[in-house]
Prior knowledge:
25% of the residues lie in helices and 35% in strands. It is α+β, with helices and mostly antiparallel strands. The protein has one domain. The strands form two sheets. Strands 1, 2, 3, 4, 7 and 8 form a six-stranded antiparallel sheet that branches. It has a two-stranded antiparallel ribbon with strand order 5-6.
Amino acid sequence: MTNAFEAAWPVFRAADGEVAIRPSDAARYLADCEAQGRRVLGWEAWLVDHALDDANEPAPQAGAWCGLIPVRDGGLVVIGGEGDARAAQREIATTDFDALVAPPLLPFVYINFTFDE
């Protein structure tokens, strides 16, 4: 289901149709989802237009995404949470992506949501 936000704002759309939005747009996106009665179950940060290469490092690849995010300490982590739209909004708002994610990759961090559909 495409919501009004997805039609009005730039989003990353995966090959399977899943959508990811910029963290800065999460509050507006979630408000739109709530207004449409879409029940959020959780969220996950994606590194868009990247895929893991043979060395398990993110490499540019248009249209791809990976859920393992390189962090400043050199590791790869999954960043996400469970809960409804309000919980997701609080968690995203308090996640310091600038402090967590390796700086060159920050522009590629988007948020994907899981819905009860």
